[in-house]
Design goal:
It comes from Micromonospora parastrephiae. Pfam families: CBM_2, Cellulase. Residues 1-29 form the signal peptide. The protein is α/β, with parallel strands linked by helices. It starts with 29 loop residues before the first strand and ends with a helix. Helix content is 24%, strand content 25%.
Length: 454
Amino acid sequence: MRTLRLVTTLAVAGLLAGGVAMVATPASAATAVFSVTNNWGNGYQGQISVTNNTSAQITSWRVEFDLPASTSISQSWNAQQATSGSHYTFTNLSWNGTLAAGASTSFGFLVNGSGTPVNCTVNGASCTGGTPPTTPPPTTPPPTTPPPTTPPPTAGTPVERYGQLRVCGTTMCDRSGARVQLRGISSMWLNWETAPYAENLSALTWMRDNWNLQVIRAAMGVEPAGAYLSDPARARTQVETIINNAVTAGVYVIVDWHAHEAQNNQSQAVAFFGDLARRYGHLPNVIWEPWNEPLQFSWTSVIKPYHQAVVSAIRAADPDNIVVLGTPTWSQDVDVAAASPVAGTNLMYTLHFYSCTHGASLRAKGDAAIRAGLALFVTEWGASNADGGLDGRACLPEAQSWIDWMKANGISWTAWKLDVGTDTTNLLSPGAPVTGGWTNYLHGHAPFVVANMR
């Protein structure tokens, strides 16, 4: 995907004229607001946010609009699309149809052409909050209901909401036993990041508040020059800064030993994780990831013994925080790990995918592992080729299939990667400030990632 230009949010019925179209919305109206999140001249990426402005929960929504004959939608996500000529209908999926009073959700689409939606309705009424032109206005005001007296379940930071996490069956649960699906992003290899985006507290809180980020992954490079083995003091400082920022911001943090041949440095990994577990293992925020992507090594004779050694060091000081275990072939062969899992509690297994390269056959491996009883965590993924998107291409329909699969199975995820560059998976464009505020700096697959965190 080429570099895209961010433009301003508009009301659905508006034109691309810049600025926000302010609409006086009746308290009883459901609304749908259109925005162009990226524009490349002969096409754009659009988003529609549906808000329940009623005083009671709704359990489904339907947005309809028309586009000019010269404009068409090529891809969409987070909604079921139906097309009849130039008329488009989008209905909720199984997981985003129920909206509490005042709650919102969104869906996105790619457009060929420059035309914008017209004649928009949401649940049969005008997207701007009134009734359609063909429907007479109501003769009596709608009944009003006092707002709920209890706070919504999403109040507070992620850690305040969920507390100590644990593995329950093949998924993750919070302190009360309710299923949790964490969504967030991974840092770049910390030794190679262009700026300390992942280490900045302001950026982390901005992502929490604006992207609904719940977890950040600290991808600490181990083997290359300048990484942990050659500069351990610098690498530790980076990781511990991210941990402490996560505690302050109330989000979860994955400590990732970002290596491909970790079996060659097992003693260093044991010492590293044992030390951090003693100092941070009492916190509910921390998730351990002892081996990012093992190469094509034997699970039973190489990878599993390594995990057993590192998990033992962690459990000596931290009996309950989740540990996510890398699997063979760049963390793809979760079905192989399922045949001989590591003994212990609160253990999950890593599955990585890149949607231009990996599709249904890799999801089948995940399904097999789940059937065998494994709990999975996708600690790295991209809507790109497996090289991270050196060609700049994004494969969003297949990425949406992955998003739907993870949602259906309660699989948490962190998307690759928080940095600036030309790769599809670099989330930021040049000039992005280190401190956050990146609404105008999204790059590559970032709009898709952010839309699916919200």
